[in-house]
Each structure stands twice: as structure tokens, then as C-alpha cells.
């Protein structure tokens, strides 16, 4: 008979996983589920879709029919893969921003019927929504959301490097430099569009805190800001400054330092007011001319601040407001009909509406204005919900440690919409999808559980 030996009561014994205290690994970053190897196509489609977003006019090639491009082909593939991915897992497809989008389409449809013009734009409204739908639904798996965030950052930084090298080496196919100026457009065909893209990548980098090493991350941010500066977008620079301030204020509030945020906001308001007073009372054009002589990019950006840029936008705004006042019915002139109407009325300066807020009411009537307000309300509420302290589960908080930066990025679109029509940017709706993914699948509920439909939810497990 084998003798059984018993260790003394005070003898140390090996600690197992079951013996470890429940909070032993609480401080460590939670492990994220790996992407399923049986669905590599989903990852490929997601990364390819994100990589295609700037490819509106690659190497200067003109857009396709109806202003279509490579991102639209990539979106078709991504939509098919996303629906197949959700169907094989028996997961419900969530449609964020569907109600405001349908309101926009209805408003545009009424205006199109009344004016017999602008029907094609309604298809585009639903098409850009699919960027948010695809990324939001794929983001129900933390591993896929991590892939999306890193794809945005890595690919966006790579594109910034290509643009910078193109400007340095004088290769216009890489930089997209304007034929009649020195501003870089990259592959967007529009410098302001490119500026908004690089600002988006900058704030996604800040929100995800990726790369993890601080000096790597700040190097990436410096590259992105350099690429944005080469676009020479005055509106983009203004939106960036406002968003940086708001991001800092949001961070103070989130850390429980609201009194500091109020003090900083008051100081910023005072400085901004003083700046406006100086600009309106002092002739600063000679100083701008001196600064613009330092660089061709400065000449085509801040050198136009009180000249061509201001006059052109003032002309467009005055024309659109006049068209709005001359409307005989409340339904609008029709989607995307601002330029044709300016041509018909023989205005001296013919352009698309350079203001999302005016364009919504002018082209789609009061229904379009209500739809726009609804969309902005939904976006703001989603950003507020995910930015609250402790709002995200541990795995999603590890992916986006600073969700308040998404609120700052939303401010970029709200400010830029005063100068450009940014609410139809494809990459903007892709960003809205990131916000929706965090709000729909990453937040803690009141009971401390994840929202239904996520992979870890018992109901979802039963459905699969």
C-alpha cells in the first residue's frame, strides 16, 4: 500500500489559476478575442474598404459616372461580406443612423418630385450609410473593431507619408498637387477633402492611443499634421484648432476636473474674441502677404484668408441665401441642384453650396433641415454616451482609451460643415460607424451587462 504523505499546514503550495484572487489580473489589459481564421475574407474586405476611402481620383484619374470611384466598388464588396458574416452567425444587422437617413431621403424625394431633378442623389444618401452600417456591425466583435482602428491609423499614416514624399520629390501623382497652385490634394481631387481625412486619422490615433509607445504615437501625429498642413485648407485648420481645444476640455470633464475646463474655456473664449476684434479692426493683409512669401503652400492657404477665399465663399453664401429667400414653396430646389440653379440664374460665381446647413434647407426644404438636425442630435448623443467615465466595457475601453476624442472629431465635421459639404464624405460615415460600434456593442448597460446581440451575450450565444 502506498503511503500517503500530508504536507504540514504551513507548507507553501503551488498557486493555481483557481487559487488566484479574483482581482489578480484586473490591472492587466484584457485579452481580446482573436479574429476567426475561417473568415479571413471579412478582415480583407474591411481593410481593403478602409484603404479605398481616399481613392476618389488616384493618380489624377477622373471619377466615374455619378462621381463614383473605387471606394464605391469596395463598399459593395464590404456590404456583401458583412451581410454574409452576420447571416452565418445569425446575428441581427443593426442599422445606425437609419431614421435620419430615411428622413433625408424622403425630404430629397419630395424635392426631386416637385422640381423633377436630383433623383440620383437619393441613391447616394443610402449608399454612404452602408459605410456606417458595415463598420458598426463588424465592430460587435472587439477583434474586428481593433482591426478597423489600426487599419485607419496605419493606412492613413502611410498615405500621409506618400503625400509628403510626393510634395518633396515633386511627383504630382503621389501628392496630388493642384495644377494651378501648391496645395496637396492626394487622391481626393480636393484639398479640403484631403485635409478632413488626415484630421480624422489624427483624432482616431489620439482616441485609440495607437501606437502604444508615446514617441511612436506622437511621431505618427506629427506626420499626419504635416500632411494636413500641406493641403493648405484654412477651414480644416480652423476645425482642427477648435477640435483640439474641445478634446482637451472633454478630457478634463471626463477626469472630474470640470472647474479647470470652465477656466480654460473662458480663457479660450476671451482670446478668440480678442482675435476677432483685431482682425475686424486692423488691416492684416500686409502681414498675411509677408507670411505667404515664406512658402507657396502658405501663399495658397493663409494668403487667401482675406482675399480670394473669403470673397468666393461670401459670394456663394450670398447667392444661396438669395435663392432660399426666393423659394415659392417649402420643399427645396432639389438634391444637388445648387450649381445648376446658379447657372440657370446666370450668377457670376457658380459653385456647389459650401455649407451643409444652408444646402440641407435650400435643396431639401424644411424637411431636409429637420433631417439634418435629427442626424446631428443622434451623432452627438452617441458621442456623449461613449465618452462618459466607465461607459465602455473593459475590452472596448482597451481599444479606445480616450473616447472623448471621437466627440472632438465630430466637432471637426460640425465646424467644417460651415465651409464645405462634409456630411457626405465617405470616410466621415465610416467614422460614424466606429462611434456606432462603441455605442451599440461596447457600452455597459444599467445592469452592468453588455447590450444584447453581442458575441458574449447569452441570448446571442443561444441564437448562434
Poorly predicted tracts of residues: 1-29, 451-464
Radius of gyration: 25 Å
Q: What is the number of helical segments per DSSP (H or I, 4+ residues)?
A: 19
H-E string: HHHHHHHHHHHHHHHHHHH
Q: Report how far the terminal alpha carbons are from each other.
A: 52 Å
> What percentage of the residues does DSSP assign to strands (E)?
under 5%
- Seen as an oligomer or otherwise, the chain set is single chain
Mean pLDDT, all residues: 82
Largest sheet: none
Based on Cα principal axes, name the global outline: globular
Proportion of residues in helical segments: 55-70%
Strand runs, count: 0
The structure class reads mainly alpha
Notable traits:
single chain; mainly alpha
Would you kindly provide a written description of the structure presented here, covering whatever features stand out?
This protein is 63% helix and 0% strand. The chain has 464 residues and is mainly α.
Write the SSE topology.
Blueprint: H1 40-52, H2 70-88, H3 98-115, H4 119-138, H5 142-169, H6 172-175, H7 191-208, H8 214-230, H9 234-254, H10 258-281, H11 285-292, H12 296-300, H13 308-325, H14 338-344, H15 356-387, H16 394-399, H17 404-416, H18 426-441, H19 458-463
Helix pairs in contact: 1-2, 1-5, 2-4, 3-4, 3-15, 4-18, 5-7, 5-8, 7-8, 7-9, 7-17, 9-10, 9-17, 13-15, 15-17, 15-18
Amino acid at each position: 500500500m502506498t503511503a500517503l504523505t500530508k504536507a504540514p499546514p504551513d507548507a507553501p503550495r503551488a498557486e493555481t489559476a483557481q487559487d488566484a484572487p479574483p482581482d489578480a489580473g484586473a490591472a492587466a489589459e484584457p485579452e481580446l478575442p482573436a479574429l476567426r481564421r475561417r473568415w479571413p475574407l471579412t478582415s480583407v474586405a474591411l481593410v481593403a474598404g478602409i484603404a479605398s476611402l481616399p481613392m476618389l481620383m488616384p493618380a489624377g484619374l477622373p471619377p466615374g459616372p455619378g462621381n463614383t470611384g473605387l471606394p464605391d466598388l469596395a463598399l459593395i464588396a464590404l456590404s456583401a461580406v458583412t451581410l454574409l458574416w452576420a447571416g452565418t452567425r445569425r446575428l441581427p444587422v443593426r442599422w445606425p443612423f437609419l431614421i435620419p437617413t430615411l428622413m433625408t431621403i424622403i425630404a430629397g424625394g419630395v424635392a426631386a418630385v416637385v422640381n423633377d431633378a436630383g433623383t440620383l442623389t437619393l441613391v447616394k444618401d443610402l449608399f454612404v450609410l452602408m459605410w456606417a452600417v458595415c463598420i458598426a456591425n463588424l465592430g460587435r466583435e472587439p477583434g474586428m473593431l481593433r482591426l478597423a482602428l489600426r487599419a485607419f491609423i496605419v493606412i492613413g499614416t502611410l498615405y500621409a507619408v506618400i503625400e509628403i514624399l510626393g510634395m518633396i520629390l515633386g511627383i504630382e501623382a503621389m501628392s496630388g498637387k493642384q495644377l494651378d497652385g501648391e496645395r496637396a490634394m492626394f487622391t481626393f481631387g480636393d484639398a479640403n477633402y484631403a485635409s478632413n481625412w488626415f484630421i480624422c486619422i489624427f483624432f482616431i490615433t489620439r482616441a485609440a492611443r495607437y501606437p502604444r509607445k508615446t514617441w511612436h504615437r506622437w511621431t505618427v501625429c506629427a506626420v499626419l499634421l504635416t500632411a494636413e498642413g500641406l493641403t493648405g485648407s484654412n477651414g480644416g485648420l480652423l476645425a482642427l484648432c477648435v477640435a483640439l481645444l474641445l478634446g482637451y476640455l472633454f478630457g478634463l470633464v471626463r477626469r472630474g476636473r470640470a472647474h479647470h475646463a470652465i477656466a480654460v474655456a473662458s480663457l479660450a473664449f476671451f482670446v478668440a474674441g480678442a482675435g476677432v476684434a483685431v482682425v475686424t479692426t486692423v488691416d492684416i493683409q500686409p502681414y498675411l502677404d509677408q507670411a505667404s512669401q515664406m512658402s507657396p503652400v502658405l501663399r495658397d492657404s493663409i494668403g487667401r484668408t482675406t482675399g480670394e477665399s473669403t470673397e468666393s465663399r461670401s459670394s456663394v453664401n450670398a447667392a444661396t441665401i438669395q435663392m432660399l429667400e426666393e423659394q415659392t414653396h417649402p420643399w427645396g430646389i432639389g438634391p444637388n441642384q445648387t450649381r445648376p440653379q446658379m447657372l440657370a440664374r446666370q450668377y457670376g460665381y457658380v459653385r456647389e453650396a459650401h455649407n451643409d446647413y444652408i444646402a440641407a434647407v435650400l435643396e431639401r426644404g424644411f424637411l431636409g433641415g429637420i433631417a439634418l438636425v435629427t442626424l446631428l442630435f443622434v451623432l452627438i448623443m452617441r458621442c456623449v454616451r461613449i465618452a462618459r467615465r466607465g461607459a465602455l466595457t473593459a475590452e472596448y475601453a482597451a481599444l479606445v482609451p480616450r473616447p472623448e476624442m471621437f466627440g472632438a472629431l465630430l466637432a471637426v465635421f460640425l465646424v467644417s460643415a460651415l465651409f464645405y459639404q462634409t456630411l457626405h464624405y465617405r470616410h466621415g460615415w465610416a467614422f460614424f460607424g466606429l462611434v456606432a460600434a462603441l455605442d451599440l456593442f461596447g457600452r455597459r448597460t444599467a445592469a452592468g451587462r453588455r447590450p444584447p446581440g453581442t458575441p458574449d451575450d447569452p441570448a446571442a450565444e443561444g441564437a448562434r
